[in-house]
Amino acid sequence: MTAPSSQSTEHAHEQAYLDLLHDRLDTLCTEIRGDLRTALRESSGTAQGQVERGVVAERLARKLLMMEAAENRLCFGRLDRAEDDRLYIGRIGVSGAGDDDPLLIDWRAPAARPFYTATAAAAQGVRLRRHLHTRNRRVLRVDDELFDDTAGVPDDVQLSGEAALLAALRHGRTGRMHDAVATLQAEQDKIIRSPHAGVTVVQGSPGTGKTVVALHRAAYLLYSHERLQRSGVLVVGPNSVFLEYISQVLPGLGETSVLLSSVGSLYPGLSASAGEPVASAEIKGRLVMADVLDRAVRARQAAVTESVDALIGGEHFRLSRDFLADAAARATEGGRQHNLARPEFRDILFEELADRLARVIGDIEVGFEEILAGEMDVQALDLAVQEDLAGVFGQDAKAYDFRAQLPAEFTERKANWLHALPRDRDAQRLLDSLWPLLSPEQLLDDLYADPARLAEAAPQLEEEDRALLVRERGAPWTLSDVPLLDEAAELLGYDDHAETERQAARRAAQRDYAQGVLDIARGSRDADDHLHAADLVSAEQLAGWHTQTDLRTVAERAAADRTWVFGHVIVDEAQDLSPMTWRLLVRRCPTRSFTVVGDAAQSSDAAGATSWREALEPFFGTRWRLSQLTVNYRTPGEIMEASRQVLKAISPELLPARAVRHGAEPPRCTGTTPEEFPAGLAEAAASAARRAAGGRTAIVVPTADLERLAAAVSARIPDASWGADVDLERDVVVLGVRQAKGLEFDSVVVADPQGMLDGSTRGLSDLYVALTRASRFLHVFHAGPLPEVLSHLTQDPS
Ligand SMILES: Nc1ncnc2c1ncn2[C@@H]1O[C@H](COP(=O)(O)OP(=O)(O)OP(=O)(O)O)[C@@H](O)[C@H]1O
């Protein structure tokens, strides 16, 4: 810390520098707005010119957004290496007016690295590291660390910028995660800047900053790999509540090329949230389901056990099993997907039908013509028709070679039938029954609803496992259906109809995006800036300029497109992913450039991984490297102690992380009878909220009991929020234990720990998650006896 006498001088000095930075940023923003206006104003020129201007406008708008996002806490650090060698570190880089050195270094630039990694033992040439605490454009305080290379302090007890870090951690929770660019720690920085290619796995116990690392890594990769700005980064989180919790971090860092998605939303157009039994979720997560779906699709491709009779154009036909099998094989040649193979199959089928129809009708008509001409008697006609029908039904068809007899008429008739069949209802019905156009939803719905189909598609599954998959047609989709729908989409391929709809949606989105660009231009107008973009051009005009350039952000485009290929995928709480979900994610990033963060001890999903090797090897082989985070920033040592036995029961090999914070009150532990539990919990909630004193409080309950217990708490605290759209910014929230994953609160009541243990086969992990959410106060409130794993807690005297 700086000495008090020098604080005011240093403070004034830093305030002057911050003023200089903001002045420069204002100037740059004004310039960009001017350029944006110019780009928007120019509406004439060649199509190519318009496209280029669109690209320029998009880039300028993005740059402006990034600069505006950096306004608060623009500069947070300074590194002094020598008397006249000083760097200021901030959220973005800011250049000077001339060719001088930059005024501010982006935190992601290599030169900024020692700010995070310099330690007393390895100062890396740094003499002083200064943290600037600012709010808006004001410097509030400065914290200094002086380095002396001879100090010889061991690295493992070093926190970088400890005073600033502890100050950041002391802030009450707000219901939203904030970025940590100013106080990232060396072990986090190392992972954030690790190479982009391959798979980086980050294991860490609760509160070690895994989510922090994941999000800052996304921002770092986008900064250092230009290509990723175009392909985008996908960040996958466990559920929508968690996504809401982290939603402000990356926009706060000015990044728009990141798509945040829960597993339930990875299939565009669907938001799967229905619950389902653990047992069926586990089966759906197994890798074998890929084969099951493959068989299910093949079963819809003219896969008949006997010949098929059909009535087309008033005539009866029999299509042999061999003919259909051959047609199916030809249609899917080269691995053509089901829906894309349908036109091929249709052509083969209609060709055959037209051929036969031309022969039948040809024969009958020829007979009539001959009768009329007096050249053929009725008996002869009967015979001809009889033989013709015999031929049509596949018996001795060669006996009637009409091509040879009547080539011209035959060819004409056949051409007429080929023209007519696509509009013929019977022919369409036949085609649909043999080779239906299928959506992934239809395929899965048909499969689940029909035990016979399931038996045919899933002979590898035990009968009782198949029985668990059966459900009513039209039942809502669950989380574990999402990877299966995606797999089905992959097997089925796209049809024209879907493509047309996509194009229409794309056009509408282009217009919306263009409107967004105009809104940015309008919103960022200076007070004296009378002319703005919206005066010059309409959204339609702007969108029209870019018929060849999709103007939505990369994240928006990627969200709407199942086949989008991301440059990098980051998975948070990855311990919960099923093998089928991993398969989906690898499809989203075939180059297999992944950052995988999680904690094996927190695995709650029945289909999830208990060991990283088991989870990752099927998809990445041995191409992954493991990093560990070892410091817990959230949970004080006293509270972590409460979860010690639980962690041991999950696996004796797992070690808790070292807690940064200490001095919290030991956890409270009280109990009551099951009858009095809801009312008692409501009181405990009120008391926990009082202790949080304006901070955030969560009541974490067994998932199955959420409704009942939330009702009891709401009766006592009407403003408490709960449910699928729980509002994390309320003072008190009630969460099912699975919803609490990844979140944190000042004060937490863990309700009915035994109920959590009994609620799932991964009950221990659920309880561990619940116990590790608190940053200041923990209260365990139980009904009946305390579970064995918590027996070391001291009961409050009642
Ligand atoms: N370097 C840091 N500077 C400031 N705060 C930090 C830092 N690292 C982590 N934190 C804070 O510590 C808390 C825990 O971080 P985070 O949620 O990323 O941990 P986690 O490992 O993902 O936890 P969990 O496994 O429980 O979800 C958050 O409040 C986060 O902002």
Automatic annotation (TrEMBL):
Domain UvrD-like helicase ATP-binding span(s) in chain numbering: 183-636
Keyword Hydrolase: yes
Organism phylogeny: Bacteria, Bacillati, Actinomycetota, Actinomycetes, Kitasatosporales
Keywords: ATP-binding, Helicase, Hydrolase, Nucleotide-binding
Source species: Streptomyces seoulensis
GO MF terms, alphabetically ordered: 3'-5' DNA helicase activity; ATP binding; DNA binding; hydrolase activity
Nucleotide-binding keyword on record: yes
Name by which UniProt lists this protein: Helicase
Cellular component annotations (GO), alphabetically ordered: cytosol
Binding site for ATP: G204, S205, P206, G207, T208, G209, K210, T211
Transmembrane segments: none
SUPFAM superfamilies xref list: P-loop containing nucleoside triphosphate hydrolases (SSF52540)
Record-level GO BP terms: recombinational repair
